[in-house]
Model the fold of this input.
Amino acid sequence: MPVLNETADKMVTGGVASADNYKIKTAEALEETARKLRSADISVKDEDIRNLLSNVELRVNELKTEVGAGYEKIGADYHKTVEPVERIIIEHPIPAVLIAAGIGILIGMLIIKSRD
Done:
């Protein structure tokens, strides 16, 4: 089970890091466009503004696609890791229930002892 916990921790940590990276990239794209719009003078054409906004939309859509691919990979890794455990439980239900009950009793005993 420790290997399963380590794998899950790595998947979560990697997912959070990727999400933070995508969030930063999106914020940078929006900030860059906001800077350009602030520095533009009143004589800027509607077409120029549309181009700036179109560029931001394109970059955000690219980042959305990358985020979606990243989450799909996390999901695939999770299923690859969890399915063997599920298969063991399905193939050996009685030992799985007994182990779970034993762990529950052990945790209950520890909680009761810690209250004393």
Q: What stands out?
A: The helical segments are 2-39, 46-91, 93-115. The first helix runs from residue 2 to 39. The two ends are 30 Å apart (CA to CA). The chain has three helices and no strands.
